[in-house]
Write a structure and sequence with these properties.
The structure is a single chain. Helix 7 packs parallel to helix 8. Helices cover 38% and strands 21% of the residues. It has helices spanning 4-19, 35-47, 72-79, 87-90, 94-103, 117-128, 141-151, 170-182, 212-228, 270-282, 296-300, 302-311; strands spanning 25-29, 54-58, 110-114, 131-136, 155-163, 190-195, 201-206, 234-238, 252-255, 258-259, 262-263, 285-291, 314-317, 321-325. It is built from 12 helices and 14 strands. The strands form 3 sheets. A 7-stranded mixed sheet has the order 3-2-1-4-5-7-6, sandwiched between helices. The protein has 2 domains: 4-210, Rossmann fold (3-Layer(aba) Sandwich); 220-325. By secondary structure, it is an alpha/beta fold. It binds S-adenosylmethionine (SAM).
Length: 343
């Protein structure tokens, strides 16, 4: 039932949990036939993780009836039993889903708990222990609220709470807002950048107010930088000192401005920026990489920007990074490398 792009997002979140050692289990509340849970289990299997489990909570009897708070669309869904998206009220039996786990070779990574959440969550939360990622995919207000009321306290700092139905059903959004408001939590709800199978978008928040979109961009940037910068070479990173220490790649990184290897703050003017760039270039820096937190530089330091664009070829430009190659000269008569994006 979950769209391909949402599954890709889920994979990245699971990999983030493992790469950053966010402690705890993976829990899905509302599993239907187990698709999303089995993806998590398969990633654990591939990563050789044996000390974490995926908990699958479901009635295995389908959805309970929606209430007025879930909104008119939810009531209409529950009455339109002939609709192709009705899926027999999301009903799948425990036996069927367990059989699929066995067929996929994932049984040892999974723990099934059958029953209604208001009974199963309080009765099992101690067994579950700390939670690194909680996927809430149970549609209605009372179910979503029950998951948050029972499991949020067990979330690890930086852990992920994924909200499959946040944009789909009114009751889900109300439950999340009520819960965060009641406990005065500063966790920020963010849209996940992809769309599900019916064009529905999902949402995420992380315990402690950490941003997934930020970490996601840092991760993609680190991958792009590792591809662009040759091993053994040196590059300048203009990132306002926001994530230089998080991109663990084996290249020499210079902050900008640079003072004895340390960050020396933003340039006071264009001349200083140009002079410092040329100094670092002559001492061997191969590339200068601007990351999105410093994109305002292009407008603010207009002469520095022109210096860069007329002298050096841009080898990458996207919403995260703008990269200039400092060691090859831009051809005087060649086409401008790029014409869109920050200028
Ligand atoms: C949309 S389906 C889940 C889809 C699934 N995550 C997937 O990957 O395809 C919603 C599920 O939530 C379960 N559910 C909803 N409210 C529940 C509750 N209060 N207690 C137990 N199960 C519930 C339903 O049985 C159903 O299987």
């Amino acid at each position: 039932m979950v769209g391909l792009e949402s599954l890709v997002d889920l994979s990245l979140q699971v990999q983030h949990v493992l790469a950053h050692n966010i402690p705890g289990s993976f829990v899905e509340c509302g599993v239907w036939r187990g698709g999303a849970s089995f993806l998590i289990a398969e990633l654990l299997r591939q990563a050789g993780v044996t000390d974490r489990k995926v908990w699958l909570f479901d009635s295995f009897e389908g959805l309970p009836p929606p209430e007025r708070i879930d909104g008119p669309a939810a009531i209409a869904y529950s009455q339109n039993t002939n609709s192709p998206s009705y899926f027999n009220n999301c009903r799948a039996s425990l036996e069927e889903v367990k059989r699929i786990a066995t067929e996929l070779g994932l049984a040892s990574y999974t723990e099934f708990v059958k029953g209604w959440f208001d009974h199963t969550l309080p009765a099992n939360r101690d067994r579950v222990g700390p939670i690194a990622l909680l996927r809430i995919d149970c549609d209605w207000y009372s179910s979503v609220r029950c998951c948050l009321d029972n499991l949020y306290d067990q979330m690890a700092e930086r852990g992920f709470v994924l909200l499959d139905d946040y944009y789909t059903w009114d009751g889900c959004a109300i439950a999340v807002h009520e819960f965060l408001g009641k406990h005065r939590l500063r966790d920020r709800i963010e849209s996940v950048p992809s769309e599900g199978c019916y064009g529905y978008q999902s949402a995420v928040f992380r315990k402690g107010g950490f941003s997934w979109n930020w970490d996601y961009r840092v991760r993609l940037s680190a991958q792009e930088i590792a591809t662009l910068v040759q091993p053994e070479s040196t590059f300048i990173l203009v990132d306002q000192e926001t994530f230089r220490n998080e991109i663990a790649i084996e290249r020499r990184v210079l902050p900008f401005l640079e003072r004895n290897g340390e960050y020396g703050g933003v340039p006071p003017d264009d001349e200083t920026a140009i002079r410092e760039l040329e100094r670092l270039r002559q001492s061997g820096a191969n590339l200068i990489i601007f990351a999105w937190p410093a994109f305002w530089w292009f407008e603010h330091y207009a002469r520095f920007n022109r210096h860069l664009r007329f002298k050096f070829p841009r080898i990458l430009e996207n919403e995260r990074l703008v990269v200039f190659d400092l060691q090859s000269k831009r051809s005087a008569h060649g086409p401008l490398a790029w014409s869109s994006g920050p200028s």
